[in-house]
Structure formats: C-alpha cells, structure tokens
Specification:
- The structure is a single chain.
- The chain has about 425 residues and is α/β, with parallel strands linked by helices.
- Helix content is about 40%, strand content about 20%.
- It has 14 helices and 14 strands.
- A seven-stranded mixed sheet has the order 2-1-3-4-5-12-11, with helices on both faces. The chain has a four-stranded parallel sheet with strand order 7-6-8-9. It has a three-stranded antiparallel sheet with strand order 10-13-14.
- Strand 8, helix 10 and strand 9 form a beta-alpha-beta unit.
Length: about 425
C-alpha cells in the first residue's frame, strides 16, 4: 500500500509540473474567452479599432451651431454606431439637472471610452465627477469651460479653452493696428462672473491704456433668461445704432454671447464700425444671418469655401478691412479636434495631456491657419494646471485682399498674464 501511494503521489506531481510548463496566450489567472464571447475589454486595457464608443455633448443649433456641426463631422467620419451625440438645453442655467444627466447618461454605454462636452456649460464638472465615480476608465474632456478652470480641471482629464489672456491683448492690438480709437465690450452679469471672461475684460482694458484707446463697457440681455434669444437679439438691433453714433466710426465692438453677434454685425455693416473677431470666432458666427441669410449650403463643411463666400459678401456690403474672424470655426474645430484627440488616445496614438498631440488633432480641421497656446496658470495661486490648455488661432481680416494678422507670432507682454 505504501509503495502504491508513493507511485500515485509521484504521478500527481508530474502532472502538476506538466500543467505549469504549458504555454498559453492568456495572461496568468485570466481564462481565455470562449469563441463568440461578448465580454467587454477590462478597465485599463487598450481598445481596438472595433470596441470603442465616444460621446459628444454640445449646445443646440440656436445657441452654438458650430459646436454641433463639428460633432456631426466626427460622427460622419466614424459612423453613428461609434460616435454618439447629444445636446444640452438652451436654457441650461435653469435646467442644470437636465444638463448634468444628459452628460452622465453617456456613461451608461458599456463601450463608452470618452465623453467630450463643448461648450462645457455649468454642471459639466459635476457630471464628470459622477462619470468618474461610475466609470473611471472613461476619458472626460471639456471644451470651452464656463466654470472656473481649476474646478473643471479637477474632474476632467483634459480642458481646452480659448486663450482669454493672450486674446484680450491681441484683439486690442489688432484694433489699434486697423486704426480704431475706441473699444466697446458688450456682455451681461452671468458672463462677467466667469473667471475667463472677467480676466479677459481686465486685460482688454489694460491693453487699451497701452495703445491709447478708450475702453467702454455696455450691457445686453442674457439670452438664457426669460427674454430669450429673440429678445436679446432685438435689444442689440435697437441699441447698436446708438452705440455707433455715440462712439464713432473708428470704434471696434466685441460681445461675449453668440446670440448677440449676428444683430451686432448687421448694424456694423450698415452703419460703420469694426469687428475684430467673435468671442468664439468663425466665418459662420453671425455673418450669414447678418448678411441676409447668406446661403452656404453648397459650401457646408468646407471652411476655405465658406470663408471665401462670406468674405466676398462682407466686401460687397462695404465692410472691406473692417471685419475679422478665425478662418476656421473655433467651435467646429474644438468639437471635432478634441473628439479626434480622444480617439487617438484611445487607440494608443497620442497622450491625453500632450499639447503637441492636441494641436495636431486641431490642425486636421484647420490646415491653413496657425495655432498658438499655453498651459493655464491660476492668477490667484500661481499654480499651473497640467491638464488645462489655452489655445488661439490667427486672426483673419476680411477684405480685398484679406489677410492674416500674424497674431500667433506676437509675444504677449508678460505683465498681462497676471492682470485680473
């Protein structure tokens, strides 16, 4: 019996050693999936080209059409099955819970790998916090954040905003180069409560002192209040002639809200004055409506053709050399570029907080225009946020001929980065 037990034990050990020496393609302690398995990739794994979804949330056509069109461009490129779109309410300030839930709902998709919000209206930071609690594997990317950047940056993997510091200086400088003697800034209290916009106003005012220009603050209704978009636009149409008469033909105008842009441009084309670029610049931002509902159906998605047609219409309307933009829509480029960057990261081609990788993705949608940018530094603490970038495109002044102003090549004086 003892001899039999010894032989049996030896056989068991041999079999065990043979099992340990076997070769397997699966990682240790991970069973190989059965053929036809529908299990999703484990958290932290690199997704293949077939197993990712991304979600993009933007405003609606009435509030931020370019943002939505950029999202649609990415969806057209990769397909509706891979790119999911949603919009938050126009009245997002009063429908905060709906806005948050719209963003968070994207994380219900088990294949969701990235959620991009552009513009990142109030509620985005909270929505990203909830997503990270549920699905820490999902990349959360904020475009043009309305909340304080350190707050959004704490819950997002990446934040990209227009460079409100550099642009505050460069817009005034450009107005001065064009011969303007007055700069009129139009906004309302909600926007002025945002750090990005209040700091830009401070920079603009300081730059006006440098260039010996008068700086003026004017107000217009907030379109997210009871007055709505229609009421806000009617107010600008009525007040703009008074402003132009008061401040003269050499005054330049800037408004912080997209809905105010078209009626302001309409009056400036009719009565005189300058417009350097929109808050979120684009040849589509306000110009088609201001030019009598300019038909750009044939040019849709082709920003070189869009700019050429808008520019000719501006010149024909008497605006030669007085109206500017970015050659490629900021909202369009940001939605499409950040989504492309997310896909590149998911597929292992880029790093989430590499500025060169972000710029390369943006450049895909703006091939002829220069970009510049820098990391965001908190003016109160002096702390630089590693995942928050400020970006801007060169300014293009429409005319015969039109020209880029070389804004991306100008070094902004250091003192402006601490103005607040």
């Amino acid at each position: 019996m003892k001899k039999f037990l010894s032989i049996l034990l030896a056989l068991v050990m041999v079999l065990a050693l043979a099992g340990c020496g076997g070769k397997s393609d699966a990682p240790a302690n991970t069973p190989a999936p059965d053929a036809g398995s529908t299990d999703q990739p484990q958290e932290g794994s690199v997704a293949s080209a077939e197993d990712w979804h991304i979600g993009i949330i933007t405003g609606t056509v009435s509030q931020s059409e370019d943002d939505l069109r950029g999202a649609e461009a990415i969806q057209a490129k990769y397909g509706e099955d891979k790119v999911k779109l949603a919009t938050y309410p126009d009245n997002f300030t009063e429908e905060l819970e709906t806005t948050i839930q719209t963003i968070v709902n994207m994380s219900d998709d088990p294949l969701m790998k990235a959620v991009i919000v552009n513009q990142s209206v109030p509620g985005t930071a909270e929505a990203f916090t909830q997503i990270k609690e549920r699905r820490p594997d999902i990349l959360c990317i904020a475009g043009e954040a309305h909340e304080d950047l350190p707050v959004v940056g704490a819950s997002a993997d990446l934040v990209c905003n227009n460079d409100f510091v550099s642009r505050g200086y460069l817009i005034i400088r450009t107005a001065h180069e064009l011969g303007c003697d007055t700069f009129v800034h139009i906004s309302f209290p909600r926007h002025m409560s945002y750090e990005t916009m209040s700091r830009r106003v401070a920079v603009m005012e300081e730059a006006c002192k440098e260039f010996n220009m008068e700086f003026v603050l004017e107000t217009a209704p907030d379109p997210t209040t009871d007055v709505g978009v229609t009421g806000a636009q009617a107010y600008v149409l009525e007040k703009a002639p008074e402003w132009i008469q008061k401040y003269g033909q050499n005054s330049a105008y800037f408004c912080t809200n997209d809905a105010h842009t078209a009626p302001l441009l309409q009056r400036l084309l009719e009565l005189g004055g300058y417009f350097i670029e929109a808050d979120l610049p684009s040849p589509l931002m306000g110009y088609p409506n201001a030019l009598g509902d300019l038909d750009l159906t044939a040019e849709a998605g082709d920003f070189d053709a869009i700019l050429a047609k808008v520019e000719q219409a501006v010149v024909d309307a008497g605006g030669d050399g007085r109206f500017g933009t970015w050659a490629y829509s900021y909202g369009y480029c940001l939605s499409a570029g950040l989504a492309q960057h997310a896909i590149n990261v998911i597929e292992g081609k880029s790093e989430i907080t590499n500025m060169d990788d972000v710029a390369a993705a943006l450049q895909e949608y703006s091939p002829k225009a220069a970009w510049n940018g820098s990391g965001y530094t908190n003016a109160d603490t002096g702390v630089k946020e590693d995942n928050v970038f400020l970006i801007y495109q060169d300014t293009y002044i429409m005319g015969n001929p039109g020209k880029f102003m070389g804004a991306t090549d100008i070094e902004v004086p250091e003192k402006y980065f601490t103005v607040k």
